[in-house]
Specification:
Layout (H helix, E strand, L loop, with lengths): L18 E3 L5 E5 L6 E3 L88 E3 L5 E5 L6 E3 L30
Antiparallel strand pairs: 1-2, 2-3, 4-5, 5-6
């Protein structure tokens, strides 16, 4: 019966690498002496998990980025740039953008059919018809003269400085005439 010689453990010492090269001598990567950081100039990594650090100066042109459930892409410190019409109304507020609150809207002109506002603060308001909120006609304004025709009104304090009062019966008030 023969006995196998006992193998003694041996320590294999590899040379310290600072450059990785392909067989033909083309540089593939470098390793920094003090930190051990590997710099790869060009690579194809088929399965890679990156658990920290930064990805700088990179364009992702042929892949999609999917953010997992409960995760966030935070672009608050930078700028998110979108193409015109890139966000559909169907993706904002569940569909058509119909109920939007704009705190301050500045415009020199507007082609708006209906405005539903509690307060309108403006220097000039150009209209032809004034209507109550329910659509009942209240007054009209003549385009060429600006004369206002009010079909029915209650004027609690009114100063009339000219013109005529025609076809009117004054039945419940005293008339005081001022002589100048």
């Amino acid at each position: 019966m023969s006995m196998l010689p006992l193998l003694t453990p041996r320590i294999l010492k590899l040379p310290i690498l600072t450059n990785l090269k392909a067989r033909d001598g083309t540089s593939a990567a470098t390793i920094e002496d003090s930190s051990g950081k590997i710099t790869i100039g060009d690579s194809i990594l088929t399965t890679t998990e990156i658990n920290g650090g930064n990805i700088d100066g990179t364009t992702i042109a042929t892949s999609d980025i999917t953010v997992g459930s409960g995760k966030t892409i935070d672009v608050s410190a930078g700028t998110l740039t979108l193409a015109d019409d890139q966000i559909s109304g169907d993706k904002v507020e569940g569909g058509t953008i119909a109920a939007t609150t704009i705190t301050t809207l500045t415009s020199t002109t507007g082609d708006i059919t209906n405005v539903n506002a509690t307060t309108t603060d403006t220097e000039n308001l150009e209209v032809t018809n004034l209507k109550a909120r329910d659509g009942t006609s209240a007054a009209t304004i003549e385009d060429s003269s600006g004369k206002i025709t009010i079909g029915d009104s209650i004027l609690t304090t009114t100063e009339i400085n000219g013109g005529n009062i025609d076809g009117t019966t004054i039945a419940t008030s005293d008339i005081t005439a001022w002589v100048r």
